[in-house]
Amino acid sequence: MDNAIFPNKFKAALAAHQVQIGCWCALANPISTEVLGLAGFDWLVLDAETRAKRRHHAHSAADGPER
């Protein structure tokens, strides 16, 4: 992905010493990640170690909100 077209807003905010608020999500389903994504968090960690029993659950959760 070209950074000129899709700048990494998270890295830019960290470089500017701006506070970033995030969430740790252990629910491996796309609905929970979509709700958290639309809630306005700056970052989201998907913990697939304990909850995502199948790889496709983690992949669908990581797809993010549909716009």
UniProtKB/TrEMBL annotation:
One of its GO terms (molecular function) is metal ion binding. The keyword Transport does not apply. Its EC number is 4.1.2.20. It comes from the Bacteria. The gene is garL_2. The lineage of its organism: Bacteria, Pseudomonadati, Pseudomonadota, Gammaproteobacteria, Enterobacterales. InterPro entries: Pyrv/PenolPyrv_kinase-like_dom, Pyrv_kinase-like_dom_sf. Keywords: Lyase, Metal-binding. This is 2-dehydro-3-deoxyglucarate aldolase. It comes from Klebsiella pneumoniae subsp. ozaenae.
